[in-house]
């Protein structure tokens, strides 16, 4: 059996990351007739390294793509994601409203298990896209660029094939990230139009409400949640921008404009039914991929509220809860499990069951993996896929998790294996974004489109070929990142 390495990140722990692996290994049998097995996640001082059975991963990815083309299956899948998204949001808001200090331990753990079950089931359905478009799988997008190149050449329209592909891949439904951004712009415009200060009662009220609504938006896997002071600082920087009301109005209308442009170019190119359907799946699942993650991060935030309360009562460090699973919540077990797992543990899924391995068992399992970690020397240029067009020049900052965000300064080029919502603060400062992992439905692609920052994804070995301090030019128009003197 050959393993495929599909993900790594510096800041990631057993909880909540098991939520992304367990559905593939234990819950998708009713859909495919089998689960993905085996799956292996290593948690160490390096963060997480995520491996899957390559052959099974490819087979299930192809099966998922074929199912996506069937309207009945596709519509049922999105209904399930919507259903569990609503359930998670409802449970998270219920937990947020509670005075947790007055709730029994039994009820706290009941809430915790409930929201975790809901999160596993949204991933059962919501992560089917990741089977088709992750790692070396690209069943949904395979060949689409070539089809567009042929059509653009034949019809001679005034856009390049890269521009057309990016346009047709752009989601036209509003994510929480977009909603938060719009609401934030609305507050900034209100300040300027009414000549209000950040300390005025009206704006303080607006900021507090915005914080209640969106404090979890960048929570990611390990937090922390945003506080009102974070939003105040960002507002202070935003209100000095010129033409802010024009920016706000443009953003409000942006999705309608994109939709009309998509319809126009589809008609100009005379795209057939299958190509149109595949692009619909790409943009719809790009939306659902982001929606699912946003809902999960809200759930992870709610989980941490419960963990903080239990940590206080059981007199254990909060971090200990990142190394235990929901069925292991026993006061006498927490510190022991944390001690066993904090330096090294393996989460292993096989034969529809989950195992957490430590000590010699974990080391033995790891020793059977074939991994290559050598740095690539002498490489001056790498290629990938354009996610958002443009050119930029800047200093490389390798970002592999929350602990690296402080390195990124205004105008730097953020280079990562992949991005997540915790990196958004650094992404906003960046002149360009480059990732090893991901395609046009990836987080980096989605955020770069929102922020209008040049972005290249799928650049293999980017974090090995480049290092902090390298001066590079990012040519997203042609999907190239190169070192410059």
What's the short story on this structure?
This protein has 485 residues and is of the alpha+beta class. The protein has 18 helices and 13 strands.
Walk me through what this model shows:
By secondary structure, this protein is an alpha+beta fold. It is built from 18 helices and 13 strands.
User: What gap, in angstroms, lies between the N and C termini?
Assistant: 44 Å
β-strand percent reads: 5-15%
Q: Please provide the count of β strands.
A: 13
Q: Strands across the major sheet, in which order?
A: 6-13-12-8-9-10-11-7
Indicate the overall shape.
Answer: globular
Number of helices: 18
Class per helix and strand makeup = alpha+beta
Radius of gyration: 23 Å
The quaternary state of the protein chains shown equals single chain
List keywords for this structure.
about 475 residues; alpha+beta; eight-stranded mixed β-sheet; five-stranded antiparallel β-sheet; about 15% strand; globular
């Amino acid at each position: 059996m050959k393993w495929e390495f599909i993900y790594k990140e510096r800041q990631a722990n057993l909880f909540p990351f098991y939520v992304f692996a367990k559905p593939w290994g234990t819950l998708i049998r009713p859909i495919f007739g089998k689960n993905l097995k085996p799956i292996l996640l290593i948690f160490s001082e390096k963060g997480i390294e995520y491996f899957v059975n390559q052959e099974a991963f490819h087979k299930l990815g192809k099966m998922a793509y074929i199912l996506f083309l069937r309207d009945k299956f596709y519509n049922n899948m999105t209904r399930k994601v919507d259903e569990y998204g609503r359930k998670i949001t409802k449970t998270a808001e219920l937990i947020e409203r509670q005075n947790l200090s007055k709730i029994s331990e039994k009820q706290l753990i009941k809430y915790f298990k409930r929201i975790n079950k809901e999160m596993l089931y949204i991933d059962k359905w919501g992560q089917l896209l990741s089977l088709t478009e992750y790692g070396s799988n690209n069943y949904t997008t395979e060949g689409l660029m070539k089809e567009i190149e042929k059509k653009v050449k034949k019809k001679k329209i005034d856009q390049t094939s890269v521009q057309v592909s990016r346009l047709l891949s752009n989601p036209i439904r509003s994510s929480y990230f977009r909603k938060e951004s719009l609401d934030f712009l609305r507050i900034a415009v209100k300040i300027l139009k009414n000549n209000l200060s950040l300390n005025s009662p009206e704006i303080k009220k607006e900021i507090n409400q915005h914080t209640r609504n969106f404090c979890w938006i960048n929570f990611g896997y390990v937090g922390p949640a945003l506080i009102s002071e974070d939003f105040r600082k960002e507002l202070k920087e935003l209100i000095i921008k010129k033409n802010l009301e024009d920016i706000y109005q443009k953003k409000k209308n942006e999705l309608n404009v994109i939709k009309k442009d998509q319809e126009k170019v589809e008609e100009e190119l005379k795209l057939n039914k299958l190509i149109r359907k595949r692009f619909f799946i790409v943009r719809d699942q790009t939306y659902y991929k982001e929606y699912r993650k946003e809902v999960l991060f809200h759930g992870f935030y709610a989980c941490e509220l419960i963990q903080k309360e239990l940590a206080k009562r059981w007199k254990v460090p909060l971090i200990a809860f990142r190394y235990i699973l929901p069925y292991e919540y026993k006061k006498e077990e927490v510190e022991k499990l944390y001690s066993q797992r904090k330096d090294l543990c393996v989460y292993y899924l096989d034969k529809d069951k989950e195992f957490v391995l430590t000590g010699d068992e974990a080391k033995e399992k790891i020793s059977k993996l074939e991994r290559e970690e050598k740095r690539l020397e002498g490489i001056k240029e790498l290629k990938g896929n354009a996610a958002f067009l443009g050119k930029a020049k800047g200093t490389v900052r390798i970002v592999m998790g929350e602990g690296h965000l402080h390195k990124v300064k205004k105008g730097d080029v953020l280079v990562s294996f992949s991005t997540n919502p915790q990196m958004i603060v650094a992404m906003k400062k960046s002149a360009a974004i480059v990732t090893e992992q991901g395609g046009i439905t990836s987080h980096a692609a989605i955020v770069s489109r929102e922020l209008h920052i040049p972005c290249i994804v799928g650049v293999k070995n980017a974090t090995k070929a480049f290092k902090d301090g390298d001066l590079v030019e990012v040519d997203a128009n042609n999907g190239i990142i190169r070192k410059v003197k």
